[in-house]
Amino acid sequence: MSAIVDKNTIRLTGSVQSSDFQSGEEGFTSTDVFYALAGFDDKAAITVHINSPGGIATEGAAIYALLKSHPGRLDVVVEGIAASAASLIAMAGKKVTMAAGSVMMIHDPAAVTVGNSDDHSKTIEALEALATAYARVYAAKSGKSVAACREIMKAETWFTPEEAASAGFADASSAKSGAIVAAFDYRQFRNAPEKLVALAASQNWGSSNPPKAQKTPKSKEKTMPQDDAANAVKSRMKAIMKSDQAEGREALAEYLAFETSMSVEEAIALMNAAPNPADTSQQEYHPPRTMTMNAAGLNRGGMSPSASERAGAGKRANLSANMKRRYGIE
Fold this sequence. Notes:
Blueprint: E1 3-6, E2 9-13, H1 30-38, E3 46-52, H2 57-68, E4 74-83, H3 85-90, E5 96-100, E6 103-106, E7 109-110, H4 117-142, H5 146-154, E8 157-159, H6 161-167, E9 172-177, H7 194-202, E10 214-215, H8 229-241, H9 250-259, H10 264-273, H11 288-295, H12 305-311, H13 313-326
Parallel strand pairs: 2-3, 3-4, 4-5, 4-6, 5-9, 7-10
Antiparallel strand pairs: 1-2, 6-8
Helix pairs in contact: 1-2, 1-13, 4-5, 8-9, 9-13
């Protein structure tokens, strides 16, 4: 992952998707952010630094919801770039500051579907719903109408710090320079600034997996009658909460069930990959990302993932309770 906690700062670097340690491609997910937030008190003031070209659209929405649900003040600083799904994440900040030389990009989500006409129709419906949800977030931050934000998204609009502040998507620009933009093949974007295209070419940033636009996971479900939709949602939540993988990971299961649109299969796969607090065999295991954080002194005293999770168990329970109250879940 590249969601690093340093005192009251969370740094989100790379694509909005899982890191690939074989290729060296950095990334962060809602699970990474969930654990990062678990280490903070409810009233803690947090600053989130973002340098990301975007990634999976539903992950971006989940991370936005997580950051927005923090009871204390949470500000955002864009260093380098906040594009695609990462621009939505940036909207979670009470104050959004653009570092000198940084850029923000807002556009429509995209997906690839393989199947019959019903499958494609369902994907279209899902993309329209997701795009509308994104537009509402952008509208709430900027004061613009949802329709106006949809037009900005459809046009794939790029903003300098001053332009983002003028449009209402940022609150301030800083004279202090931020980090170089995150590595990504910016040639994949339709209207990417020439300097980013040239930089990607000169640095040979040709990625194997990154999205051309915000990705949504391919739906494995068939089209269902409208009157079955509510039951399907309830069944999905129950299946996630009652799965064997939820044992020992109750807070994560609650979050996946209530705060994301992940399928049951995707949620179970994610929980399988997450450390289990009851599994003592993991207490001394330090994967590459943990060793990197330990070496930099940024891993809360060098605790392993499971030890760190136990230390934040109470705070994580509060976070889950806040989410459930926010959405009226008993």
